[in-house]
Request: fold
Amino acid sequence: MLTGKLVRVRHRKNQVIPLYVSPHDTAVRLVAEQLITLYRQSVGRRRGQLEEELADLIPEGPQGLLPAGLAHLLEERCTFETTAPLPPEEVRAVVFALAAQKRQQWAAAGLPFDRRTILAEAASHFGPLGTAEKLDQALFADLKCEQRITSFEDISVDRLLDRYNVALAQAVLLRAVRLDVDIEGETPARFRQLFRALKFHRLIASIQAAGPDRYHLQVDGPLSLFSATQKYGLQLALFLPSLLHCRRFSLCAQLRWSYGNRAARDKTFTLSSADGLRSHLPDFGTYTPPELEAFIQSFANKNYGWSLQAEPLPLRLGEVLWVPDARLVHRTTGREVYLEFFGFWRKTDIVTHHARLQQHLPGRFLLCLGEGLRLEAETLNTDDPAIYRYKRFPLVEEVIRRASRLAGLTDQAPDLLE
Reply:
């Protein structure tokens, strides 16, 4: 993520407009390629050597903000380590104490200061492993400029430029007071991913349905809290890559923007899927677990008098939105039962989740728990028709039997309809 000093924006009235880069800009691509090549070739070298070469590629002033920002993102992909044959702090303690003592003696005798003599004598304090050469290597090895680059996670020019644009937007969001986000046309898997990201980053958010397949999210920013914290702002910025996986979204952020020593002013920042920012995080939002795939395929080959909707819309359970995996609808009566499958690939507080569903959707849900789940499921009542424990894959017949019982139709699995 970019620091405040590296942010490139322009202002139009009360709007903050990030200066995104185009992946098709030849000049920008050349700078990115030069920086990537430099970092590739710097593995094994000192950080100070890298910084000296970067100074030749990064001009001073506003023109240097872009290459400095790219270099900052590349540095985050490096691993730096302190490599020293002896503990640097211990070496300095011995060498500096001996140097102070010898300096006084040599000055009184009119002799010049001899660094090599100091190192050779100090080496005796470290036993057979101590040599003047090793002490010289370890003396300042823990300074930042002396750290060695042990690895670099390579990246292409296109991905670096995409990452820069996202990092620029994230840096702007650090100053947000509030976010309003509209999302539409997404699958339940995507909504589940997004809501999970909000919870994972501990963001204060309210979610409202704004249409058949549209939702409005209002997220408080770090500057809206009684005590604005950088940690909360970071969590807010880290949420952005998850949002970028959505096909259609629009974001409007209310900012408190300051200029140096000037008082902060109210600004706005907008972002939408039309801006073309691409998330650098892997997209797991459309992943369908094998248990659910097997159930859908098995159900499609049979007719039980129920229809199956594989991607139902989220449901509100009090202040919480629930995204079920499937929805069963009885063709004759229209009664519905929502299904959610839990295996080793998904874990949650089953007991609390079950209690919430029982409160808001009694008789209209069925939780299918795989044997790989080893959480609070053991404390649930196995005789509850809304709880189905399966081994490897859920059986369609058993799901239909329980759904029929929950819907008040029958306690037995219905015969297959011709």
Q: What stands out?
A: Residues 405 and 411 are 5 Å apart (CA to CA). The mean pLDDT is 85.
